[in-house]
Design brief:
The protein has about 290 residues and is α/β, with parallel strands linked by helices. The protein has a single domain, classed as Rossmann fold. The protein contains 8 helices and 10 strands. The strands form 2 sheets. An 8-stranded mixed β-sheet has the order 3-4-2-1-5-6-10-9, with helices on both faces. A hairpin with a 5-residue loop joins strand 3 (about 110-115) and strand 4. About 40% of the residues are buried.
């Protein structure tokens, strides 16, 4: 089996850290003030790439945010054919939130073979998980596994009792197929967006979409998962926690090309995608598991 085995750390992020002391500086400002040393000072002396927990998380912040005393259990569903970046980006953010436990599960547990042969493990068995506060279903290049009846039953069971039901990319189609998104607004990768109404969901062409005051949250295609996760972080842990995490992971995107959305893409590039994914320009791309 080809690919890379990725180790998983299931530890909670409950280490104490110092409050942001230089919140007004951007990454570029910090670098001008002395490079990595200044950036480390800006995040309060915590481990730059570790699981630092800012002190502001100990008290209630913005309205509706959780306190450090309110534990948050996040479950990421994995399956064969899934896209790594769909959940790797959100995982990077969720692991750094205070008092948050991130778990990974698949139908049978153990390893799963993602898109491009990447082997991911060691996942828990979905049936062994009684409930979760937040469930995240990422998308994939092959949805045959999560669209199967056994996967659908487990995802529906956990989603119905979860406080927050979320997805990234065409993972929203997997959720929608269970029936939990009927009548709900949802995002999706632009190439699959118009598949959502087939399952009773309302398609919204945005990078982040929410319904029912945030109980349902979704991200658009692949890289939108990072934007999505930061918005989730803001809603559940407050803006300062989200900004702290954004700074830690140096998320300051400046794409070399303005071609990440069909409205910006040259016709010949869009045609290339249509050739790879028939029906993409209509939001009705064909991939295994949908048809």
């Amino acid at each position: 089996m080809q690919g890379e085995v990725i180790l998983i750390d299931h530890n909670k992020n409950d280490d104490d850290g110092d409050q942001l002391s230089r919140a007004g500086h951007s990454r570029r400002d910090a670098l001008r003030l002395g490079g990595v040393a200044a950036l480390a000072a800006a995040v309060g002396g915590g481990a730059l790439l570790g699981h630092a927990t800012p002190a502001f998380a100990q008290a209630r912040g913005e309205a509706g945010s959780l306190t450090q005393n309110d534990p948050l259990d996040i479950l990421i569903v994995n399956y064969d054919g899934g896209t790594l970046l769909d959940f790797a980006g959100p995982s990077e953010i969720f692991h750094r939130l205070p008092n948050t436990n991130v778990r990974y599960a698949s139908l049978n547990g153990g390893t799963v073979t993602l898109e491009f042969g990447v082997v991911y493990g060691n996942t828990e068995r979905l049936a062994d998980i009684e409930k979760t506060d937040l469930i995240l279903v990422p998308g994939g290049s092959n949805l045959s596994a999560p669209m199967g009846p056994a996967y659908q039953a487990q995802i529906r069971r956990l989603a119905e009792s979860a406080k927050y039901v979320t997805s990234v990319c065409n993972g929203s189609l997997v959720l929608a197929a269970t029936g939990v998104l009927k009548g709900k607004r949802s995002g999706c990768h632009w190439a699959f967006l118009n598949e959502l109404p087939k399952y009773g969901a309302i398609p919204v062409a945005e990078r982040f979409v929410e319904d029912d005051n945030g109980r349902f949250m979704s991200g658009g295609g692949v890289t939108a998962g990072i934007d999505f996760a930061l918005r989730v972080a803001e809603k559940l842990r407050g803006r300062k926690a989200a900004e702290f995490t954004q700074l830690l992971i140096a998320y300051d995107p400046a794409p070399p090309f303005h071609c990440g959305d069909p409205s910006d893409a040259p016709p010949e590039i869009l045609a290339m995608v249509d050739k790879r994914l028939p029906g993409a320009s209509k939001g009705l791309a064909l991939i295994p598991g949908l048809h």
